[in-house]
Every structure is written in C-alpha cells, then in structure tokens.
Amino acid sequence: MHQKKIPMRKCTGCNEMKEKKQLVRVVKAPDVTDENGTVISGGEISVDLTGKKPGRGAYVCHDPECLRLARKARRLERAFSCKIPDEVYDALEQALSS
C-alpha cells in the first residue's frame, strides 16, 4: 500500500521541521486593490487555527518559547515583509496557552 505523505512545515521560532498539524498558522490576507491595481489596504495578519484561510502563511510551534524567539528575531515580520502589530502577538500567545 502507498503511504500518504505527511505535510511538513518549518517553525519560525526554533527552525525545526514538524508536521503541519503540530503547528499554529499565522496568515497575512491578500492586499485589497482597486480596478487600477492600486493597493487600497494591506492584508490583515491573523491567527489561523483551521489552516484554511487564504493568504501567505507562517508557522509557529505550540511552545510559547518558540513564539518568543520568533518575535525577538522578527522572523514573522520577515516572512510577511511588513510590521506586525502587538495585538497579533497577543492573540498568538492566547492561542498557544489554550
């Protein structure tokens, strides 16, 4: 029998490859543009617990220490090429604590 492939992703905190189900996804929604292609508003950054939201994703372990390391090294900001508000980090901390 052919074994099903398990998707692997890298944690932005500890840089270890882990199964996708073991990680929390942080997503940046696509930018909103008008008919001329001008960006009206940047994509919103949020925690994606379902793993189904559209947009660019980055992953963090369920370990609060990994989130601390990612925040200190600004790895999520580098992954999304934008500044991440403190509210997103607070929401991530709450998602990891539950």
Largest sheet: 3 strands, antiparallel
Q: What spatial order of strands do you see in the largest sheet? A: 6-3-7
How many strands appear in the DSSP assignment? 7
What is the name of the CATH class? Alpha Beta
Q: Give the number of helices.
A: 3
Cα end-to-end separation:
38 Å
Give me the secondary-structure category. alpha+beta
Write the element-wise H/E pattern from the N-terminal end onward: EEEEEEEHHH
Number of domains: 1
Strand content: 25-35%
For the record, the CATH architecture stands as 2-Layer Sandwich
> Radius of gyration from the CA trace?
15 Å
The CATH H-level superfamily is YlxR-like
Short overview:
The chain has 98 residues and is of the alpha+beta class. It has helices spanning 64-72, 75-80, 86-97, and strands at 8-10, 17-19, 23-28, 32-33, 39-41, 45-48, 56-61.
